[in-house]
Amino acid sequence: MADLLTHGHAYKVPQKKLPSTDAKMVVLGQTEQTCPGDLRGPGVPNPDPRPLIDRMARVIRSRNLDMLNLMDDFLKRPRNSRMPVRNRAFLDTSTFKRALCYAFGDQWTGIAMTTAEFDELYKKYERKDAHGLAASPQSQGGGYQGGGGYGQGQGQAETLILWQSFAQDIQRYVDGDHRSASEMMLVEAEMELMAKSEAAEAAALAAHDADDNMADAKARNQAKMQARAAAMAKPIGTRGCTVGQVNHAKSLIAQTLTGAGGKYDTVREALRDIDNSGDGILSRDEVKLLLNEHYLMKYTDFYTNLTRGQLDEVVVDTLLDLVDANGDGEIKADEFSAMCFAGANTYFFDDASDGYQSNAHVQGM
């Protein structure tokens, strides 16, 4: 009725084909029974005269495709899918074609494979029956597998394809010597560049290991530790003490009086508490009294008879000798404070060794 009212007759007017949309509509009109190469029409040759396997190999090489993984990825079920698990070992021809389309992506149309080429491609990988022969057309399933006619081969087993064998064969073909001269030159250049990159990386890693972690660094570190240990073992004063013992005493006094848990900001402030005259000059006994009050000098506990404290009196006397350079018995608070802070947070006592070690250069006395 619409055609009669519009055109004055009751038959349909053929749909107009516009040059700008005709090719697109042909592509959109594809089905699972057609291939991209069928769109050229009968008798129209393929612009690329090479065999189908070479056209596919060109795309696989140019895009670095892994056919086995791509086709296997197509067969994986989406999460939470209720669809049954597909047969991973064999695929029917329609699923095999969809897997190829998924693997090649937007290059599927560019390959321009025809139905005849597709049939020739998968025939080699058909599943054989018990006698080692391919399934006959009469035993094929319905639909496309039955030759395209509705009802043909209904109820029969479908033609199944060994898709993994196909993927492995075409990958070996691509990775073989079936490349053009320009492709071979490109591959050789890439391999040469890769070899140079790996050699440079190995050299950089070896230099890093040798400089920071291995022989040279360990030797330098060991030499420094030996030099520090020798410096700490040097005698100082006239009482038989070493530099390491005196420096340890400096650090311990400064950290105990002014460090975490200490109640003074400076050693001089601590000395001011026991400076009764207020002139900044103390006696040796007053300094030792201060150290005893903070349990720094070694003493014997009255109740347990155990030795407590960390500093031997001979070490303290050696430190006081360095402050009292003229030997008049007077200890100036400023000089004693400066002497202690000169070693504060610089030296530590290593209980695992036989003597005192330093984590900084030895300071001159």
Give me a quick take on this structure.
The chain is mainly alpha-helical and 365 residues long.
Structure description:
- This protein is mainly alpha-helical and 365 residues long.
- The chain has a domain at 233-358: Recoverin, domain 1.
- The protein is 50% helix and 7% strand.
- The chain is built from 15 helices and 10 strands.
- It has helices at residues 2-7, 19-28, 52-63, 67-75, 93-104, 108-111, 115-123, 163-175, 181-213, 215-232, 243-258, 267-274, 284-293, 313-323, 333-342; strands spanning 91-92, 160-161, 235-236, 241-242, 281-283, 299-300, 307-308, 330-332, 347-349, 356-358.
- The strands form 5 sheets. The protein has a two-stranded antiparallel sheet.
- α11 (243-258) crosses α14.
- The chain is rod-shaped and about 130 Å long.
- The model is unreliable at 135-153 and 344-365 (pLDDT under 50).
The CATH class name of the domain at 233-358 reads: Mainly Alpha
What is the name of the CATH superfamily of the domain at 233-358? EF-hand
CATH topology of the domain at 233-358: Recoverin, domain 1
Mean pLDDT: 75
Radius of gyration: 46 Å
- The fraction of residues assigned to DSSP E strands is 5-15%
Beginning-to-end CA distance, first to last residue: 118 Å
User: How much helical structure, as a percent, in the residues?
Assistant: 40-55%
